[in-house]
Write a structure and sequence with these properties.
The structure holds 2 protein chains of 2 kinds. Chain A is an all-alpha fold. Among the domains of chain A are: 75 residues, Four Helix Bundle (Hemerythrin (Met), subunit A); 36 residues. In chain A, 62% of the residues lie in helices and 0% in strands. Classes of the chains: A mainly alpha, B mainly alpha.
Chain lengths: 205, 90
């Protein structure tokens, strides 16, 4: 029951992202989607992924979107009248995706439609008493830091590129920025300047 | 999964300005991430989770750079309506 309580606002909000008139509303709906996704992940037992997705998606991405919306004076836009022009193509794409899903989700792994199969024939071993129970973080660390450490380092490089790119893109050369001319800084002879000022405080430097 | 389809629909149907068009992309990334995690739990495979902890990294990075590009194009163009951004020059 908690699953449906959590997941239905996610679907509705995913729908409402498109339809919201106010641009701030159209940011609040993805925030709701992110919250619901994080709750669903907690229900799955993945505590670390839930917190990580909450922090990253809500705390970084949604906040940056909010800043941009606040910065630009986006008016309350009217609903585009030509929305029906795009509907055939998007409808076809959506139907193709829907049709592909039924290839992937066959009823043996994930029961999508209710079948009248004998549910007690599912055999699953209860691992609880046999193995040491690892937390989600430990299992991730077991893989990410040892075997797939290259992925980890590459993702850090991606973040570095993102930081540098965002700063380089938004520095504006014509606005007055306090910069230091490095060569001039290095060419100053500190001893000469400081000694001049301390020796003759009343005279010219 | 359905959220990712809704995100695709959001991109296709929403041509008002680029900012609103880029929000369903984030939602789509999150939905695909959730898909990875759910399948990895249900199939008892750790590969899904180790990949799904790297996907938000890429998502945050591309949203940051995408928003920076959006800021610059709106500063250059003056408008953010999508129909008037139809030339690469500038």
């Amino acid at each position: 029951m908690i699953l449906s309580v959590l997941s239905s606002p996610a679907l509705v909000s995913g729908l409402m992202v498109v339809r919201a008139k106010n641009p701030v509303h159209s940011i609040l709906f993805p925030i709701l989607v992110f919250c619901d996704t994080s709750g669903l992940l907690i229900l799955l037992g993945l505590d670390f992924s839930a917190m990580i997705s909450a922090v990253v998606h809500i705390g970084a991405i949604a906040i940056s979107f909010l800043f941009i919306v606040m910065m630009f004076n986006i008016q309350i836009a009217e609903i585009h009248e030509e929305v029906l022009r795009y509907l055939p193509v998007s409808g076809i794409v959506g139907l193709i995706f829907w049709w592909e899903m039924f290839f992937i989700l066959d009823n043996e792994t994930i029961p999508l439609l209710p079948t009248h199969r004998n549910m007690t024939s599912l055999r699953y071993t209860v691992y609880a008493g046999k193995v040491r129970s690892w937390t989600n973080l430990e299992t991730l660390g077991n893989l990410l830091y040892t075997y797939y450490s290259v992925w980890f380092l590459v993702s850090s490089l991606i973040l570095l590129v993102a930081i540098i790119g965002a700063i380089v893109l938004t520095t504006h050369r014509t606005t007055k920025m306090k910069r230091q001319d490095v060569c001039r800084r290095n060419a100053l002879d500190s001893r000469r300047n400081i000694m001049n000022k301390t020796i003759s405080p009343f005279g010219h430097s | 999964m359905i959220i990712s389809i809704l995100g695709i629909r959001g991109i296709l149907l929403n041509r008002r300005n680029i900012l609103i068009m880029s929000m369903p992309i984030e939602s789509m990334l999150l939905a695909v991430n959730l898909n990875f995690l759910v399948f990895s739990v249900s199939l008892d495979d750790m590969m899904g989770q180790s990949f799904a902890s790297l996907v938000p990294t890429v998502a945050a990075a591309e949203s940051a750079i995408g928003l920076a590009i959006f800021v610059i194009t709106s500063r250059v163009r003056g408008t953010i309506v999508v129909e008037s951004i139809n030339s690469i020059q500038g």
